[in-house]
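Predict the 3D structure for this chain.
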Amino acid sequence: MNQRKPNLWRTLATLGAGALSFLPATYSLAQVSEEKPVAIQVDLTKDKGPLKPIWAWFGYDEPNYTYMKDGKKLLTEISKLSKVPVYVRVHSLLVTGDGEAALKWGSTNAYTEDANGKPIYNWTIVDKIFDTFIERGMKPIAQIGFMPEAMSTNPQPYKHKWDPSQKGYDIFTGWAYPPKDYTKWAELVHQWVKHSVQKYGQKEVESWYWELWNEPDIPYWKGTTEEYIKLYDYTADAVKRALPTARIGGPEVTGPGSEKSQKFFKAFMEHVVNGKNYVTGKTGTPIDFITFHAKGAPKVVDGHVQMNVGKQLRDIDKGFEIVASYPSLKHLPIIIGESDPEGCAACSEDFNPQNAYRNGTMYSSYTAASFARKYDLAQSRGVNLAGAVTWAFEFENQPWFRGFRDLATNGVDKPVLNVFRMFGMMPTNRVEVKNGLAYDYARLRDESVRAEADVNALASKDAKSAAVMVWNYHDDNVPSPDAPVSLRLNGLPNKTVTLHHYRIDQKFSNSYEAWKKMGSPKTPTAEQIAQLEKAGQLQQLSAPERVQVTKGEAILNFTLPRQGVSLLKLSWD
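Done. Predicted structure below.
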C-alpha cells in the first residue's frame, strides 16, 4: 500500500505544466521520502452526517471598517469562498459616536436624546454596515450592544483611545454600563428590529441572529449577573414584539473553562429554564440559540511561539457539556461567538511576541486542526453546533503584516484565509477518517500537541466528488522535516477521476513569504502589490492529475511540510 515509485518523477517531469497525466491508483505527488509515511485512511462509504459550514462565520471589533475600502474587498472575498451565506458578527452597533473607526472601537450614533430626554433614532450607519453584508449575500449576527451614552448609568468617560503598547489600559468605559431605564432600552431594541423588518423584509430578518451583548462575565458588562439577566428579558421581549419569529440568544460569555465564566453561564441558563421573567412575571425567557467563546493561549517558549489548541478545545467542550446538561435546551443551535487561537485581534506582534504566528502558516494549520475537532466535540456531547465565529477581519491603513489577527493586510490575503477557501470547496457530507493516527479529538483536547505532530484529515463527499483536507500541525513553531503522507481512499467509483491538489505552505498560497522575499517593503509598489495579491490566493501544488481507480481504491502519496495544509479534491462524471 505504501510502495514508493521514484520513476514516476521522471515521468511527471516530462509532462507539460498544464497537462493532465494518467497515473495508476498508487502514485506520488511529491518527493520520495525514506521515512515511514503517516497512513491516513478515508472510507467514502461511511457517512458521518452533514459537514455543517461551521467555519462560514466571521467577526470583528471595529464595525466601521465594514464599509471602508479594504473592508469591502475582504468581505467580498469571504462571501465568495462559501456556497452558503456567511454570517458576520460585529461589536458596538449601538455605541454613540461619529462613526470614525479606530482599534477596538466603533460607533453608529443609533440612539441619542434631545434636551427633554426624548429618544432620537438614527439608523444611517447601522444600515450602512448591514447593507454591506446583505449586498454580498451575507447575514448579520445582530449584536445588541453596547450602551448608548445618553442611556448609560455611568456615561463618562465614554469614548476610549486604546493604545496597544499600554498594558492594562482600561477600554471599558461608559458604553459598558447598564441602562438608566430598561423600558427605554427595550424600546430602542424594538425600534431597531421593527426598522430592520421594514427595510429588509420579514423573511430576510428572520434569517438573522439577534444576540445580547458580548462577554458579560468580564468588564464588557459593568453590571451584575442579575442585571444582565434583567437586560436579556427586556431585550428578548422587545425583539419578539417587533418580530415574533426573530431568533434571539446569548449570553456570549468568555471561555467556559474558567470558573467565573461557568458560574455566569449556568446562572443565565438556570434563569432561561426556571427563572422569573422580569417582563412577563412568568417562568423562563425566550431563547433560540446559545452562545459562548473559546480561545487558545499561545506563549513564547525558548525563543519560539508555542500554541495551546488544547485550551481552546477544553473551553468548547465545557460549553457543550453545560448546554447538554439542560435537556430542554440541548437541541438549540450553539454559536461559538468567538473561536480563536487567543483573545486580542488588535494586539499586534509589535508588543505581543506570542502573536508572531499570525502572518504565516501556523495560523493556517491551527485553524484546520481545530475546526475539524469542533465537529467531533459536538458529536461526542450530542449538541447542535451551528457555527464557530473566527474573530478576525482586517485593520485599515496599518503597516503591512504588522501581526494583527486578521485575514488580510492592506487588501492582500494572508495564508489563513486560504484554509477557509479550502473548507468552502469541500462537499457537504462528512465521511470517516479511520482512527489509528497519533491524535483524536480527545487527546488533542486533553494534551494539546506537544509530542509528535498532528498529521490528520477531514473528509467529505457528494455524488460526483470527494475532498480530503490534510494538515501537519504542531503547537511548537520550530523547523521540522516534512511529513510523508500516504492517503488511502476507499469507496471511489471504478473509473478515472480527476485530482486537484491545493496547498498552503512556505511556497504556495502565502503572501507573507512573498513579501519577505521582496525585502519586506514598508510601501510596496503597485507591481509588488499585484504580486502579493496573486500570492495570497489559493494555489495548486501541481497540475491536475488523472487517477485510475482500482476496486474502488486510490492511494495518494505526498509530503506535507510542518504547519502546511493540503486539500485533495477528486471529481468524476
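The CA atoms of residues 62 and 106 lie 5 Å apart.
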